[in-house]
Write a structure and sequence with these properties.
- InterPro entries: ClpP/crotonase-like_dom_sf, Enoyl-CoA_hyd/isom_CS, Enoyl-CoA_hydra/iso, Enoyl-CoA_hydra_C.
- Keywords: Lyase.
- Belongs to the enoyl-CoA hydratase/isomerase family.
- By secondary structure, the chain is an alpha/beta fold.
- The protein folds into two domains: about 190 residues, 2-enoyl-CoA Hydratase, Chain A, domain 1, CATH 3.90.226.10; about 45 residues, Lyase 2-enoyl-coa Hydratase, Chain  A, domain 2 (Orthogonal Bundle), CATH 1.10.12.
- It contains twelve helices and ten strands.
- Helix 6 packs across helix 7.
- The model has no long low-confidence stretch (mean pLDDT about 95).
- Bound molecules: octanoyl-coenzyme A (CO8).
């Protein structure tokens, strides 16, 4: 597949999705969002791919949000259409593990894209924020919900209502990012290290664990625990469970199946 606003490569089970619209700080226009969706669909369909890393070619921006030039022309009906929110839901629900490797600006829809990923790694000089209220709108691609779930309601309200930007260091302090690194080069190294850890896990177990955490978070605990139990029951029926437990007893590294 060839794209205009993103670059794709597959390397040892890792699908690299590189955002690349440098003249606009990777502002996410409709075309770029369609390309991201096509890439995610492609990654989902390749059994060998176990991890998707979303990153940017340029150090200046991960993504500066929705394309404001397009946004200015959108109507209420456009806002009601599935759009970015549905795409980010698809990313969160991906059966592959997802990593956002963030340098530069991750604002608005860019920050929301990072929050839809399972793991966020950022450089110290990365800049996160949800500045939508500056434009007279609100975060609309999951920001009001995911930010509160990740960092808590109080801090989320502060970031959303004031529109303040925070550095990678602050983002690490409040738990918005999982790993902090100094430079862009370190970012790639860390992304590769985290990816290799994920590659050693059973892909079905990854999928089930993701589902239990993401879906379980949205319901009451007793329902969530039941979801966990059902997911575990599915895991117990897999060849990967046999392989994982046998490998432990035989003191060797397990070889899990692709799915
Ligand atoms: N949209 C369109 N163009 C952009 C965007 C953007 N979000 N961000 C930057 N650009 C463009 C600039 O217009 C400029 O273009 P040009 O050279 O043609 O004038 C170019 O990128 C470079 O930008 P700057 O000169 O401003 O670069 P700086 O490094 O000085 O600043 C910033 C970078 C801080 C990122 C600054 O450009 C900025 O504040 N951008 C806007 C950030 C923002 O407000 N993002 C939120 C957008 S709204 C959103 O994401 C809503 C998502 C949910 C939508 C749901 C719809 C239903």
């Amino acid at each position: 597949m060839s794209f205009k606003n993103i670059q794709i490569s597959v390397d040892h089970g890792v699908y690299w999705l590189m955002l690349h619209r440098p003249d606009s700080r990777n502002a996410l226009n409709t075309e770029m969002l369609s390309e991201i969706e096509a890439a995610i669909n492609e990654a989902e369909s390749i059994p060998e791919v176990r991890v998707i890393i979303i990153h940017s070619v340029s150090e200046k921006a991960f993504a500066a949000g929705a394309d404001i030039k397009q946004l200015s022309k959108k109507t209420s009906l456009d806002a009601l259409s599935p759009g970015m929110q549905a795409l980010y839901d698809k990313i969160e629900s991906s059966k592959k593990a997802t990593i956002a490797a963030v340098d530069g600006y991750a604002l608005g829809g860019g920050c929301e894209l990072a929050m839809a990923c399972d793991i966020r790694i950022a450089t110290e000089q990365a800049t996160f924020g949800l500045p939508e209220l500056n434009l007279g709108i609100i975060p609309g691609a999951g920001g009001t919900q995911r930010l509160a779930r990740i960092i808590g309601k109080g801090r989320a309200l502060d970031m959303i209502l004031t529109g303040k930007k925070i550095s990678g260091i602050e983002a690490m302090d409040i738990g918005l990012v999982t790993y902090l690194v100094a430079t862009n080069k370190d970012l790639l190294e860390k992304a590769n290290t985290v990816a290799s850890r994920l590659l050693n896990r059973g892909p079905i177990a990854i999928q089930l664990a993701k589902m239990a955490v993401h879906k379980g978070y949205d319901v009451d605990q007793s329902t969530a625990l039941w979801m966990e139990k059902l997911s575990q029951a599915v895991a117990f029926e897999t060849e990967d469970k046999q392989e994982g437990t046998s490998a432990f007893m035989e003191k060797r590294t397990p070889t899990f199946q692709n799915n």
